[in-house]
Specification:
- It contains 21 helices and two strands.
- The chain is mainly α and 451 residues long.
- The protein has one domain: Amino acid/polyamine transporter I (Up-down Bundle), CATH 1.20.1740.
- The protein is globular, with a radius of gyration of 21 Å.
Length: 451
């Protein structure tokens, strides 16, 4: 066995061990439940107020507006996880996995309220710009003795927010829709690498502009890409209108019967749903607090409320639409398809002439906008580990990772991100659980003023 195969197998085995065990899942769901009980669901009850907050005008230059930070967050999480990630969840756990993605997302909304509020509370200012995240929360909120936990978060953050999954799935959809069998080279590796080079060139033109440029680009792309995708999926549901209600019922019933899963284990469905929800909306992982710390807002609670929009749009809306798209067309019953191929079948069978090309456009828009946003997360982790002057160096590493993702297997790519996200969740949630009373005190005062 060569070194690359050994490393790949090690990553896959480690990710499965971490996510299939009870500790991580209990922490993710348990923390959300704990926050929900302590807050008496106040963040969810005031959720509609978050949409008023993102409409506020702010012309200052010291950071991102609430709308830009929310859009950057959505651009960072509404990506291929909402398309191929949902299809993977259904192929592994059946329709019932979607129900447990919903449950995880609802608790995740409350978790994000806490983690993002803390990120704004403990953020720091560098060159008149705000920066923060779990690593800053840990070092400032918990003290120096907890710094090793912050270092662990940043190390795996540089890998967890890598672009390998997005570039991998862009290559797959381009091959399936455009190139098909017309490869330039006999070796698929070189064909995939060429596509990866084009992706890297495109992404480099944006990420070299810094966070303000990322925020402005993302704020324009994110709402458009979600709207286009929703329209297309609604069109598919109109064609298969008679299957929409049965599909929704199947999601709920299968969550508690596990009839669609080999072996019929409800526990396995919960694990798959929670794992894919975390992959999709990143609640409790610690990436969203990094972007929300850059907001212009002066009130941590307000940004905490805004951060809840991410999981809601990502999982409750977009992931549900993808699931219905796959279920109403019956593509999920074809075991020859997995990931983006399953969704491609749903689009091509419903819209034979133009469906695959619409999916290609949507996929590229989702993935590229995500690639624009993800680099900033890695830069902040690099700055914490090696100093501010070295943060731009991560961009070079980021572009290299795009090339690696374009030629890697889907299983390896997903496992690497799953492993990194799983490890990142421990520092993020442990610090949030310890510092939860500080959020609750601020929230109590803020909600009292709203009333």
């Amino acid at each position: 066995m060569d070194l690359i195969s050994f490393f790949s197998d090690l990553i896959i085995t480690s990710a499965d061990f971490l996510w299939n065990g009870p500790i991580l899942i209990s922490l993710l769901i348990g923390a959300g439940l704990y926050f929900s009980v302590r807050s008496k669901l106040a963040p969810l009850l005031y959720f509609k107020h978050s949409f008023k907050l993102i409409s506020k005008k702010d012309n200052s230059e010291k950071g991102l507006s609430s709308f830009e930070s929310a859009s950057s967050q959505i651009a960072g999480i509404v990506g291929m996880g909402n398309i191929s990630g949902v299809a993977i969840a259904i192929s592994l756990g059946g329709p019932g996995a979607i129900f447990w993605m919903w449950v995880t997302a609802l608790f995740g909304m409350v978790t994000k309220f806490y983690t993002c509020s803390l990120s704004v509370l403990y953020r720091k200012k560098v060159d008149n710009k705000f920066y923060g995240g779990p690593m800053i929360v840990i070092s400032k909120g918990l003290g120096k003795k907890w710094k090793p936990m912050a270092i662990i978060f940043c190390f795996f953050g540089m890998l967890g927010v890598s672009p390998i999954f997005q570039s991998n799935q862009i290559v797959e959809v381009v091959n399936a829709v455009i190139i098909k069998e017309n490869f330039l080279f006999d070796d698929k590796f070189y064909n995939d690498l060429i596509i990866g080079v084009f992706i890297a060139i495109l992404v480099s033109s944006v990420i070299l502009g810094g966070i303000k440029r990322i925020g402005k680009v993302a704020s324009k792309i994110a709402p458009i890409m979600v709207l286009v995708y929703m329209i297309m999926v609604f069109y598919i549901m109109v064609i298969h209108y008679d299957m929409v209600l049965p599909s929704l019922i199947l999601i709920i019933t299968d969550a508690f019967t596990a009839n669609s899963v080999l072996g019929g284990s409800i526990g396995s469905i919960i694990l798959i749903g929670a794992r894919r929800a975390s992959f999709s909306n990143e609640a409790g992982i610690g990436t969203a607090p990094i972007i929300h710390a850059s907001s212009k807002t002066e009130n941590p609670v307000e940004e905490g409320l805004v951060s809840m929009i991410g999981p809601f749009v990502d999982t409750i809306i977009v992931c549900t639409l993808t699931a219905l798209c796959v279920l109403v067309t019956g593509s999920w019953t074809n075991y020859n398809y997995a990931g983006i191929e399953m969704v491609n079948y749903a689009f091509s069978s419903s819209m034979p002439n133009f469906g695959p090309y619409i999916l290609l456009f949507t996929t590229l828009t989702f993935a590229i906008s995500t690639l624009f946003s993800l680099s900033f997360f890695g830069e902040r982790c690099t700055a914490f580990l090696f100093g501010e002057k070295h943060s731009p160096h991560y961009r070079v590493f980021y572009l290299i990772l795009i090339l690696i993702g374009s030629v890697s297997s889907l299983k390896f790519v997903i496992s690497l991100i799953d492993l990194s996200y799983g490890i990142m969740a421990f520092p993020t949630l442990i610090s949030a659980l310890i510092l939860a009373p500080k959020v609750e005190k601020m929230a109590k005062d803020y909600f009292k003023k709203l009333n």
